[in-house]
Write a structure and sequence with these properties.
Blueprint (H helix, E strand, L loop, with lengths): L10 H18 L1 E5 H19 L3 H10 L3 H14 L8 E8 L6 E7 L1
Antiparallel strand pairs: 1-3, 2-3
Helix pairs in contact: 1-2, 1-4, 2-4
Length: about 110
């Protein structure tokens, strides 16, 4: 089935969760989560960094509308966008870390390269 993964949540809950996780990833540089969530977060984080490469007003407004913290949005525009200008995508890395103890969910660390 093409498109986004549902992650067992309603669309509003899923959108809010992904916004929070992308914001946290861009703020801290790495997070640990399940593999399926990491893949979704990776896709959105790549889009935010790609928008950060552009310096036009529309891209900045899109970043500020998606990322939940203003300081992180400024970081994407001022630091991360210029840092990845020479890379055509691939600014995140997903490393699988094994199964979670409680429910055996496949865990992964997602980090900025």
């Amino acid at each position: 089935m093409p498109g986004t993964r549902k992650l067992g949540r309603t669309s509003d809950h899923r959108r809010a969760m992904l916004r929070a996780m992308v914001t946290f990833l861009l703020e801290k540089g790495r997070i640990e989560t399940t593999v399926t969530r990491a893949k979704e977060v990776s896709a959105m984080a790549e889009k935010m960094v790609t928008l950060g490469k552009r310096s036009d007003l529309h891209a900045k407004r899109q970043i500020f509308s998606y990322i939940t913290k203003e300081t992180v949005a400024k970081k994407v525009i001022d630091e991360l966008g210029p840092k990845y200008t020479d890379r055509d995508g691939g600014c995140t890395r997903i490393v699988k870390t094994g199964a979670r103890r409680g429910d055996a969910a496949e865990m992964a660390i997602i980090e900025l390269v």
